[in-house]
Every structure is written in C-alpha cells, then in structure tokens.
Design goal:
By secondary structure, the protein is α/β, with parallel strands linked by helices. It has 15 helices and 12 strands. Strands 3-2-1-4-5-6 form a 6-stranded parallel sheet, sandwiched between helices. Strands 7-8-9-10-12-11 form a 6-stranded mixed sheet, sandwiched between helices. Bound molecules: manganese (II) ion. Manganese (II) ion binds near residues 89, 115 and 135.
C-alpha cells in the first residue's frame, strides 16, 4: 500500500498523472499537489486528463499545466516513457475517459490512489481507503511519508481545496479529528490562510448559475413520505439561464438540506440520458442504489449515468427503486405514539372539555 507507493516514487523518474472526467476540486487538487511535489523532487511529470476540469477551478496554482488529451505526440510519448502512471480519485476506466484505456494498456506501473468503493482489477498497485475524506488526504500521506519539507504554498492550496470540496467544507461523516490534524499540518507547512480559499471556491458564483439554481429549487419534489427529495437540471434550463454545466456543482445539497429529507437526487439531463447525483444523511447509504443503476461512489455520495427513452422515465425508475435501498419511516410510525406525559396531559384537556358540557 503506502510503502509500496513511496518506494515506486523514490526508485523512478518519469511519472504520468491522470484523474476522472470533469475533474472537480479533489481530482484536480490531488493531481496538482502530487504533480508539483514530484517535480520538486526532481522528477519528470506529465499531467493529462481526458477532458477539461471544472472551469471554476482555473484559479488553482498550476492548473494551466494540466493538459487535455488530444492524441498529441508529446502526450503519447509522456505516457510511453512513464515508469509509473497514477490514477487519482476514480477506480473506473470509463470514468477516466479515453486516457483511462491508454493508461490501462501502457507499460507503466499503474497506481491507484483513491477513496471510492470497489476498485477495478487492472491496477498494479493500490493505495486506497474508502474511509478517507478525499483523495487529497491520501496524497498528503504520500508527501508526508517522503519529504514534508516540500509541502509549499501551492501544494498546500491544492490539498486544502481537494479536502474542503470533498467534505462539503468539513461537514460530512468522513471528517475525523485526524483529518483536522492533517488540515492543520497543511495550513502550517504551506503557510496558507483558509479564508481566501473558501471565498474563491464558494463566493464567486455567476449570476446565470444562481438563476439556474433558482429554477432547480422550484422543481424540487418530495416522495416516500417526504423523506426523499429530488430535482432536475434539464439542458433547456441551462440554455435558458445561460449557465454552464459546471454551475450545478453542489445543487443536490440544497435538496438534501430540507428538514426530514434523508436522501436527495439531482437528475441532470444529458444528450442520451441523465447523470444522477445521489446524496444522503450520514446513517443512510446510497452507494448500492447508485450501483444498481450502473454507477457507484461513496456511502453518502454517489453517482450514475442512466440511459432511458425519457427523463421522466429515468426519474420514475430511480425514485421507485429507492425503498429497496433505503428504509423510509411511515408517516405516523408506531414509535410516534404519545409519551405517557403527553397522554395524561391530553386526558386532562379532554376531561376539561367534558366538564364544560
Ligand atoms: Mn474525491
């Protein structure tokens, strides 16, 4: 596991790093942190993804060094010459996109660094922990194990962003005292302040993005005794508001924030189906439910791509399947019976009522 990865880094010189499609804060942050760290160790590093990262992350130090794969000779050569190819934040060839297939077929030793459940079998070395809050937490452990002195401002900013975005700003059940200690180390060693990073990530919403949020909020529906919430983002809504696909990042959390809602879904219409985001409260699991629809993820945050003739059909199928995976309390559960105190109070009221007759 970790020791094997540390040895591979010490013993080799050429590295290739990739991550999942539509790289988010954890994916790009982990990639930039590991890439910069390796470069500081004097290694040769190529960072190549199958598509563009979320545009709201363009500010991250070094983001311009991450390339989008276009079959370019230099990119092919970088992979061919790589001793080690890292895959970060996804354990699934398809989720990496076409670079995934290239990495799988490359001669390089493939190393998976990830915190998702059920890794595919083709990786040579695994450094995975599904209880890790973010892939960034695992990358920190690699840096800490090799040369923590190289954790500079840029590496710290990338790691902090990875962890803050994958924990909903330190809210999720994956957050532990150990993670906060790691964060303290990252802040101190990198000499960075958390507030400006939070402002950059969360307080720079676009007006079209907020209008799209408004439309999404209007379309929230509740099912299963109001304990399941869901909403949609259609292509039409995105076009009408002038928003970008990336703007719906985090929308599903608004649905989950409704009191009484245990699990939330966001259906985002794609050209040939829908992308579904599953979220749940800590003691409710959604990963099996997502897996049933061909997706995967974490216990409380998962995703799936589903193809159905219509968006309505997709919604109906996924919502209808919910009780197979989640226990929804009946509206008036037997456990909701009046307490003895309430019962006797009610009786005094009733007595009073009969007295007045
Ligand atoms: Mn992650």
């Amino acid at each position: 596991m970790l020791d094997h990865v540390l040895a591979l880094i010490q013993d080799n010189d050429h590295f290739f790093i990739t991550t999942h499609l539509g790289a988010d804060g954890d994916a790009l942050g982990s990639q930039l942190a590991l890439g910069r760290f390796l470069e500081q160790m004097g290694k040769t590093v190529a960072m190549v993804n199958s598509d563009e990262h979320d545009y709201t992350l363009d500010w991250m130090p070094g983001a311009e060094h991450v390339e989008v794969y276009d079959g370019d000779l230099a990119q092919q050569q970088a992979l061919a010459e790589a001793d080690v190819a890292f895959v970060l934040d996804t354990n699934d060839e398809e989720r990496i996109g076409r670079v995934g297939t290239l990495v799988k077929e490359a001669t390089a030793t493939t190393v998976l660094i990830d915190h998702h459940l059920n890794p595919e079998q083709w990786f040579d070395v695994l450094f995975v922990r599904d209880t890790a809050a973010a892939t960034g937490e695992l990358v920190y452990e690699i840096i800490d194990g090799l040369d923590p002195g190289l954790l500079d401002e840029a590496v710290a900013t990338a790691l902090y962003t990875a962890i803050v975005t994958d924990t909903g700003s330190f809210r999720y059940s994956s957050v532990t005292p150990g993670l906060h200690r790691t964060i303290a180390e990252i802040l101190e060693r990198g000499g960075i302040e958390p507030a400006p990073i939070h402002e950059t990530i969360y307080d720079r919403k676009s007006m079209p993005g907020l209008r799209l949020l408004g439309r999404m909020l209007n379309r929230i529906r509740l099912r299963h005794n109001d304990q399941l919430g869901y909403s949609v983002v259609t292509q039409r809504m995105v076009e009408d508001t002038g928003a970008s696909w990336d703007d719906k990042q985090g929308f599903v959390n608004y649905v989950l924030s409704i009191e009484g809602v245990k699990a939330a879904l966001l259906f985002s219409e794609t050209d040939d189906g829908a992308k579904i985001s599953f979220r749940s409260e800590a003691d409710v699991r959604v990963d099996e439910w997502a897996r049933h629809f061909g997706g995967g993820g974490h216990r409380n945050a998962a995703g799936a791509y589903v193809k159905r003739p219509t968006l309505e059909k997709t919604i109906e199928d996924v919502v209808a399947a919910a009780p197979n995976y989640i226990e929804f309390a009946p509206r008036h559960a037997p456990g909701d019976a009046l307490s003895p105190e309430d019962q006797s109070y009610l009786e005094t009221l009733l007595d009073g009522a009969s007295d007045s007759e």
